[in-house]
Amino acid sequence: MQLETILPVCSPAHKQSFVLCVVAMCRAVPINDLIYRASQQSDKLHALSTMLTQELGSEAFPIDRVLACHTSSLQTPTDKEQALQVSESDLLSLARSLLQAWSDPLEVLSSSTNVLPYSAQSTLSKTIQKMQEHSKDLKDGLDILSSKMGPAAQTITSLPFIQTNEIGQDKITKLLSCFRRDSHKIDSFLKVLRCRAANMQPQVC
Amino acid sequence: MVCARMVKHLRLPLLLLLLALAAECNSMSKPGKPDKLGCRSPDKETFFCWWTPGSDGGLPTVHRLYYKTEGRETVRQCPDYHTAHSCFFSKTYTSIWVEYTVIVEASNALGNTSSDPLTFDLMDIVKPYAPENVTLVVSIGDNPHLTIQWHTPSNIDTKSGWVTLKNQLRIKLEKSKIWKNYTSDTQTHFTIYNIELGVVYMVEVRCAIDNSAWSEWTNTTFVKVPNFPRTDNSFWILVFSLSLIPLLVAMIILILKRKTVKKYILPPVPAPKIRGVDVQLLKSGRSEDVINAMLLNQRFPVVMPWKDQNEDYLIVSDKETSYLPLEKNKIFILPVAITLDSEVQSKETSEVDRFLKDSESSSEESSEKTKSSQLLTKCPSTNVLNDEKANQLKGVTEKIIQPFGISGYVDIPRHEHTQEADYSRVNEVNSDNILIMKKENVPHTLDTQGQEGGVLDDYSRVKEVNSDNTVFLEKHSDSVNASIRAKGYIDWVNQKAKSPHVTGHSEMGVCPQLVGCGYVDTFPPPAVI
Lengths: 205, 529
Fold this sequence. Notes:
The complex is a heterodimer of chains A (205) and B (529). Chain A is mostly helical and 205 residues long. Chain A has 8 helices and no strands. Helix content of chain A is 64%, strand content 0%. The longest helix of chain A has 31 residues, at 118-148. With 529 residues, chain B is α+β, with helices and mostly antiparallel strands. In chain B, strands 3, 4, 6, 7 and 8 form a 5-stranded antiparallel sheet that branches. In chain B, strands 12-11-14-15 form a 4-stranded antiparallel sheet, with no helix packed on it. A 3-stranded antiparallel sheet of chain B has the order 1-2-5, with no helix packed on it. The longest helix of chain B has 24 residues, at 2-25. Chain B starts with a helix and ends in a 43-residue tail after the last helix. The A-B interface holds A 43, 46-47, 50, 63-67, 76, 78-81, 83-84, 181, 184-185, 187-188, 191-196, 202-205 and B 44-45, 70, 91, 94-99, 101, 117-119, 121, 123, 158-162, 164, 186-187, 210-211.
């Protein structure tokens, strides 16, 4: 009997996530713990992006900015009431979609640090690398989580990032601002999800 | 008519005059630029903005706040100016993850002045209020610790999960200048364990939403940690001192009786000592006294120099006896123990006589017998003669051998079990071919080993007797075979009776079969003891 038949929830497409999935299934890690772990990762990701924008200084971020991110097309709640009305699956789906949308741009960012002034380069490259790692971890965790939560959680909206050439400094700052926002969205959604899942433990919220 | 015309002509200048007057009294201008525009969201649901107005230009000035959100082009005005120079945005008007652009305009009769625009996202301006109701509880006992509790700001909703707070507190001693920071996640309490006693602590707490800016610190809260009462120290001091007293007493006793204790703990080890040896005598250095003392004590047998002794020998020769069937012309030598008792002597002699008689029974060579009997007859006299000398000896044997001229030794293997002196030494060989052997009677209460050693040293084995009547003695250093010792005979060479065929061992007493020829042995006197 193959493992896939025993655990149909886990998809063997991605080896690492499959293994994690199998492990999680076999060990029966409760959802609450998975969500808690995911929210910790998202919090860390957001902290990194916030720190990065603060370190680069306000001069890199012009005040009169109008952010037109590549993820703006994704409809997300814009205030608390709206966010509390979204279902758990949708929240997870949104988080996963946003996360997926930043996989490529982070790659582009990590290879474009030479555009910035020299003093900012090392900070940027290090932080971007860390952000990529946390993003990857979070993505794996959310994949497992979504597999436990039904098919609605599985849908991911594609938000392509089209940029083949090297980007300029203003584009970099814009991307970083967009990423900060999106990481905050992910973090907020997961925290709402966490609180809702732990309805018997008020101290979690 | 003319008045109306005059007023009309005067209106304009009058107005100008009034205005000029007014202008001179108040310097009116456009309002100053509103400054220091700021916005803050204390709960991630609402926010408010504030500004600092500029000069009003002498005229009533109105400040208006306009904002614009991302995605909507309309410019809206502040929904609620609930306090002066600030604007409050309620939930309705608050959106997150949208860019706000806020601008304040001051306007008066003379004009408008706008402030610099402020662009922000709600997440940028989130900054909660400070926590409330900080309480400190000191808990004493085995594990003194300080528990700090507080409440989240009352305006924040923590139940929905929309807002997640994390807290930070800092603590320091009142007299110290350095704060120590601790982070607590969502919990609203914290415990510090390693606290000092009898000091005053100062505590402050602040919080943050997500990764936003930190709130202000709370007002400082003071707490005094009391000194813990020492529990009945006097009791333990009393117990301690009482337990010391027997210890002191024991120490005093030990010191006073230290010699006894020392003897008990370290018993004297007896020095090595030889019986009969006086250490002091040894130290005095007089060797004669020492030796005498040693000898007297040890009861060594007195070793008399053998030269001073008269030796008595008895030689028995019997060729015909069955004891010596193999060889002819062998001579027995029967050691006879001579004692003081004449009766014994006579017994001895009678034994000898008997023996001689036996020997006389043999038919051959009676001349030799006679000779031997002569010799034998000699012997008792000689024995008697040497009686005094033999006082000290228990047994004497005399052996007669051809003259040799040289004193030598014939080994006399002593019987192991005899306590008698079994020594015989060849003292001299006189001209009559008599080997005079000295019998030494060495009283031996000592172990036989020494004697045997002495005996061993004295062994000589008759190697051969050549035609020149020379007895060649072997130097024999090995230990003698016990069987040889048991019965040993010396070969006696009678020079005069020498026959040509006699070589070596011929014309001697026949050695017993059991024994190789060549040893003189001393029989233990059977009846003496």
